[in-house]
Amino acid sequence: LATIVEHNDSTVVVTAGPSASPRTGDVVLRIDTDALYQAVNAFTYVSPGQINSVTPTSGVPGTVVTLRGVNLLGGGTALRQALLGGVVATVQNASNTEVVLVAGSGSGSITPGVAVDVVLQADTFAEVQRVQIFTFVESGNVSSVVPSEGQRGTVVSITGFNLRSGAASVASVVLAGVPVESIVSENDTLVVVVAGNSATALTGGNVSVISADGAEVLSVGNFSYLDPSNVTAVSPVEGQFGTEVHITGIHLHGGGSSVARVLLAGVDAYLLE
């Protein structure tokens, strides 16, 4: 039997009861006077939706989660909402065989280390769910950024907790809105990067560590770009072994405290001062 949600003389709204298999049949209304009204073959049950896999099976708010299965739209045309542990997730795209979500944050059954249910609610209010299939882990945090300022090529060490956000790796890092030039090494507690190029000085920018599953660990206001270095003169402009060469410009220390190495036409020079 269907559950009656509301009714009047022109509209009756019901919630369909369970059916173990697809079928087409009549819609029958029984009135309190025992009168019967029916529409022949007016409703079809589709095969029940089923979530077969969830990837990844753990993460933090912001993790991109992919669900695969059959009839994930529950006979509807779109998803009305998706829930992970009772918390509304953002639906990136949805079809009957694949749904991609971004795990949400907020009130709900989010307890790190405890498996939670995944619920998909179609635009028809039909639900497809799988119980205890996703586990939230504790959100990461950044404890230090060293150095806290620099320019292109500066090697920056980011230390903290759960910097991978439950994923297998860190995929990208952004310093003050500028993607890093490269990731030297990374794990859950230390990420070492080479700063990318910024054409201007940027003060108090955020540090963003993004996992392979799309989750972000954010540190607010912890990195600044200095004005770019610039060589204004080289004198003399030619020479040989032993020639004393004077290089002048601005910000030649590049945010550091000294010059560690100089190359002249690809050849290491001796530093005099």
Which keywords apply here?
single chain, 273 residues, five-stranded mixed sheet, 25 strands
Q: Walk across the major sheet and give the strand order.
A: 5-7-10-9-8-11-12-6
Number of helices: 0
What level of helicity do the residues show? under 10%
Arithmetic mean pLDDT: 91
* Rg computed from alpha carbons, rounded to a whole number of angstroms: 30 Å
Secondary-structure-based class equals: mainly beta
What is the helix/strand order? EEEEEEEEEEEEEEEEEEEEEEEEE
Largest sheet: 8 strands, mixed
Stretches with pLDDT under 50, minimum 5 residues: none
- Strand fraction band? over 45%
Q: Characterize the overall form.
A: rod-shaped
How many strands in all?
25
How far the N terminus sits from the C terminus, by CA atoms, comes to: 90 Å
Question: Could you characterize what this model shows?
Answer:
This protein is 0% helix and 54% strand. The chain starts with a strand and ends in a 5-residue tail after the last strand. The chain is rod-shaped and about 110 Å long. With 273 residues, it is an all-beta fold. Strand 16 (170-175) and strand 17 form a beta hairpin. The chain has strands spanning 3-7, 12-15, 23-30, 36-45, 50-55, 58-59, 64-70, 79-84, 87-94, 98-102, 115-122, 127-136, 141-146, 149-150, 155-161, 170-175, 178-179, 182-186, 190-194, 202-211, 216-225, 230-235, 246-250, 263-264, 267-268. The strands form seven sheets. An eight-stranded mixed beta sheet has the order 5-7-10-9-8-11-12-6, with no helix packed on it. It has no helices and 25 strands.
